[in-house]
Known about the structure:
This protein is mostly helical.
Amino acid sequence: MAQPREQWASRFGFVLAAVGSAVGLGNMWRFSYLTAENGGAAFVVLYLIMTALVGLPVMLAELTVGRGARRSPIGALEHFGGTRWRPLGLVFVATGFLILAYYSVIAGWTVRYALIGLLAGFDGDPGERFGAIASGSRAVLWHLLFMGATVAVVMSGVRAGIERVALVLMPVLFAIVVGLAIYAATLPGSGPGYGYYLSVDFAALWDANVLAAAAGQAFFSLSLGMGAILTYASYLSRENHLPNESVVIAGADFGVAFVAGLVVFPLLFALGLQQDVGESTVGALFITLPKAFSEMGAAGRVVGVVFFFALVVGALTSAISLLEVVVSSLMDRLGWERHHATFLLGGAIALLGIPAALETDVLGAMDGLAERFFLIAGGLGLSLFVGWRMQDPMGEVRVGAEGVRWFGLWRWLLRLVVPAFLGFVLYWSLGDLSGALQSLAGG
């Protein structure tokens, strides 16, 4: 028998939980790296445009479907579209399942780095350290420990678990990121780092690769296409103003990502390590930054521990939302109790992540499959569903948001603009994904 639907205790709790779902490892480094490598401020401009034209419409669609149906992705799409749309809900659940399996491995790395900095410092060969941490039996152990923490939070429920953790950890994360940005600004020689991060290359505005990167980052960063926002919205009351919620979530997500860049690049340039920022985002995060913390001496040890603790917070809040997608779906479909569903699915995801913990090439292939295909395909399907199939989505979204005049524009964005951009990104990304998978199979 289905369990009674839980609800958030407050709007503030929901917003922080949704922001926690969006803010993760991608914000803390990936956004900064892509900005620097794709035209600086030009990339930021394209990212904001893609957020407005693609990210916000899809987020509002997820909020509308989730709150209206008060069900997880599979049940919500069946509620509004019938059984023919069940496969799209399954895509959302499969995406959350796949991403969490390898995301937990990377999160385990961040926990180990935080503890290493706290207990021993960051001295030594950073490349050798990362090689020892990134794969093998210890990587499996920390992956399982992190999954255990995620399971414990989700098992406690929406109010006592997810919302309570968000209310405590998200303000801490905001304070840490702002504090580190202020500290980085005081370092001698940090000025060129701002120039590198925010330089304007106007030619990049017309570069298809940069456009695809900006659209992909906007979509990935906002935690869209995986059913997390839809699932969280299923616990909302009818009084919530969904357009306002979507803008607040997107704004906070961008703010954390942008300020994180104001930490990383000034710090690296102040220490003369800009040449070590190679072609690997993972290498820069787990090799170059620890090297920088080591060269800063005692202060660097403190800064490093705080920085990696912030990464742990972002990873945990994102992992919680991913697990909630699959747990909520099983509860809705089979009427299982939360404890039973969480334990079973958390264990299954942990098992799936073990190959990624043992071999980083497997992790990379899983990440590419999720980011370049499942997320984009899920968002594309949802935009077509709400834009063309769902009966009266504007009537649903207007509940609690009467008087908003641009809802007609929102639906036409879902019908035309969003599918065009996501179709382009999907096409552009499949070539890279195919090459990566072939390389992995050949290896």
